[in-house]
Amino acid sequence: MANKDFLYGLSKMTFMGKTVGYIEKDSFEWGGSAPESVDVDAEQVPDAPVLTLVQKNGTIAPKFNMIQLNYENLAAMLGGTATANGWKAPTTLLQLCGECVIDTPSGKRIKIPNAVLLSHLEGKLTLTEVSKIACELKVLKPADGSAPYEICDIDAG
């Protein structure tokens, strides 16, 4: 049984309702940025700020490599068209956006209701490693003003 006091691992990821293929081991990173603030100094207090003004909350921008490159996965992660015997790259500017849900073996679910997927082919064509789709999710504020992401128990929805 999973210990729900910890957040670890990756069991399943969906983007726009489709299961994302195999994700390369040790490639998932939270990304993002630390909170931003400005310190206010006073002439009379030389050893420390007298106030900190918070400018921006911390963010996440998950990054990962998808390595299961069947034609359907190529179309789902890069756009374009999957056919019975191939894949064709998109011919126009593409913006893939939608909900991303990540389930973990620790019993937690990460929900990102409004994410933009930025992705491209990466890696090498060798006999010692596989090519991959390098992916980054830009987490946007949902149109309804709700939280940009949440972490909850899987059995809670």
What is this structure, in a nutshell?
The chain has one helix and eleven strands. It has one helix at residues 71-78; strands at 12-15, 18-19, 36-40, 51-56, 63-66, 81-83, 86-88, 96-103, 108-122, 132-139, 150-153.
Structure keywords:
157 residues; two-stranded antiparallel ribbon; 1 helix; elongated; mainly beta
Overall description:
The protein is mainly beta and 157 residues long. Helices cover 5% and strands 39% of the residues. It is built from one helix and eleven strands, in the order E-E-E-E-E-H-E-E-E-E-E-E. It has one helix spanning 71-78; strands at 12-15, 18-19, 36-40, 51-56, 63-66, 81-83, 86-88, 96-103, 108-122, 132-139, 150-153. Strands 1, 2, 5, 8, 9, 10 and 11 form a seven-stranded antiparallel β-sheet that branches. It has a two-stranded antiparallel sheet with strand order 3-4. The protein is elongated, with a radius of gyration of 20 Å. The two termini are 18 Å apart.
